[in-house]
User: Fold this.
Amino acid sequence: MFIVLLLIGVLTTGFLSLNLVRSVYISNVEERLVTNLELIQNTINHSNDNTLQLDAFANEISQNIHVRVTLIDDEGVVKGDSEADIETLDNHFYRPEIQDAYAGTLGKSIRYSSTLKHDMYYVAIPYEGDHEGLSVLRLAVPLENIEHFYLLLFKKVSISIVAGLALSFILSIRYVKSVTNPIKRLSEANKKNSKW
Assistant:
């Protein structure tokens, strides 16, 4: 019974810890993306160039920070994208993170990218500046990066759980023997004494 309770406790603690670390990791990714979005916004605002080529700018920024960069106008038209030809992209007006950014808040979304053919984690902010025709700045990272981290963490937590259970099992056997051995010796001594 003790081993079963220990197993339940260790597994529960391990998986709660795993979920906590995953959420902290996603929060850190989000924080990094928001910081990069703010830096991009400052860069655009300090360029003093209303003719800045947004598509080329998105590509240049993406090469430096290694994420997908998308720049969108107030009608949902993509003005710059680091991963796709802007002429072939669908209108982004109704994307959830874009709608949140239009509403003046931080937009976040996890969904499949039909352009890149895998799940992405998107973060968008409203553009606050004077560059004409620009309303939303968005960054995205492949969700597979986050899932890769999660799987790596899952393996390590699983190994820790198995090692902890094995150690607990060995220690519990030694404890049981240390308690029962003196009782066995006493019982054997009583049997010998009763024969006399």
Q: What stands out?
A: The beta strands are 68-72, 78-81, 107-113, 118-126, 136-142. The chain has a mean pLDDT of 86.
